[in-house]
Amino acid sequence: MSLWLLNHFSTFTLAVVTVGGTVLLAVGGSVLLRRRYPSLARGEHNDMVGVTLGMFGAIYGIILAFVIVTLWTQVEDTQTIVATEATDAALIARDAAAFPSPVHARLDSALSGYVHAVVEDQWPRMREGRPSYGATETHLRAAYQVLQTYDPKDDREQIFYEQAVGHLDDVATQRRARITMARQELPVLLQTLAFGGALVLVALTFLYGLRKLRVQILFVASVAGLVGFSLLLVVVLDRPFAGDLSVSPDPYREGALSQYWGR
């Protein structure tokens, strides 16, 4: 569900719907409950409700902060993985210049096919939550085959050959890590805790009575707005390859890899 929302609506639209919707529902529920039970306005149970609201708010806030920080760290880790994979591919492209022209051309062709497959085939699949190794497997195997069948002729070539092999192994490692990140999502229990806790916290504010309706609305709306924005962050950060704030494939088009996009 979150993938569909992120891929079909802008972050601004989701913010308006999530934050605005949460505030409207909270204010509407508070006003209706106040009219149904006018005694709430006198604040007869504010002491008990205040303690409960404070304890629950503190616990829920800690849990929500943990979830958001974890998701943000996941996004940063994903960006690092993508940048590292692109850097390793670029280093292979530079190392290949030390090999004979036929070997250089074959390795260049495999790398070109790989970066194009990552951006044009694998990236859309990751945005949809269904990444596939097959999208890049042919090109990665071709690069390995070039290096496995080539025998360096001198010490200079041997140095660059060993570096190229090491970087290619790193590309394969980072590819697996990137695909793993594309498959991850917040566990169902944490999703239930985040969204269910928000519902309980906002509902508790209805029971905290204030004599002036405007002050009551301001109080409820403030809590609901904060909760709604926090939930928006959970939705947006949960999928690092989907939505407006997703990880970009630009590293595969920059630096030494830019040569493969001008052909």
Mean pLDDT: 90
Helical coverage, percent range: over 70%
Largest sheet: none
SSE series? HHHHHHHH
Query: Helix count, per DSSP?
Result: 8
Structural class: mainly alpha
| Count of DSSP strands | 0
Shape: rod-shaped
Low-pLDDT regions: none
Distance between the termini: 38 Å
Radius of gyration: 27 Å
Sheet-strand content, in percent, reads under 5%
Layout of strands and helices, then pairs:
Blueprint: H1 2-8, H2 11-36, H3 46-95, H4 101-127, H5 134-148, H6 155-183, H7 188-206, H8 213-238
Q: How does this structure look, described?
A:
The protein is mainly α and 263 residues long. It is 76% helix and 0% strand. It contains eight helices and no strands. α3 packs antiparallel against α4 and α3 packs antiparallel against α6.
Keywords:
263 residues; mainly alpha; single chain
Task: Report a brief summary of the structure.
With 263 residues, the protein is mainly α.
